[in-house]
Amino acid sequence: MALLHLVRDRSPHGLTGASHMLGRIVAIGGLMVAVACLTACESVPPELQPAQVLRDSLGLTERDVVFEIGVRTESGSEVATPARVAVRGPARLSFRSDDSSAHRITSDTTGLSPDQRDFARSFGQGSPPLVQHEARWVIDLTGAPPGHYTFRVTGSTREARVDVEVVQD
Questions:
Q1: pTM over 0.70
Q2: Residue 56 burial by CB count (10 A; 0-12/13-18/19+): exposed, middle or buried?
Q3: Per-residue pLDDT for 148 more than 90?
Q4: Beta strands across the sheet bearing 136-140
């Protein structure tokens, strides 16, 4: 309030001329700093944004590769974006729920080589139900035999498929 008083009044505290002008400039500067601080407080710090939270929770560094695949329900169908991913080298897949609908991700072992099938079994029975916005299921593809892997996204609507090609280095 004191800052607003200095900015608004013509001669606060009996100041005139240059002293009054300097007081107004200082008051306006203080007001701008206060507004900037309030604006900064409303934004989400980078360390709390989902990608950073994911890296922190898994102990990853900036050198680790994580492919994000968003899943959602849209127009009566499950949707996965992107639906195709090519992975080279050690990497992880992060299936992320982009809405509050229930989604489940499973590995389709049809057509996999015996080595790929053995590797796909390491994913277990699939993801737990992703029922909250931003819920994630992360798969480590380090050591995956090269080839195509298909993941099915199911929910209460038609399923979606995600094709992941693991390319040998």
A1: no
A2: exposed
A3: yes
A4: 77-81, 66-74, 92-97, 136-140
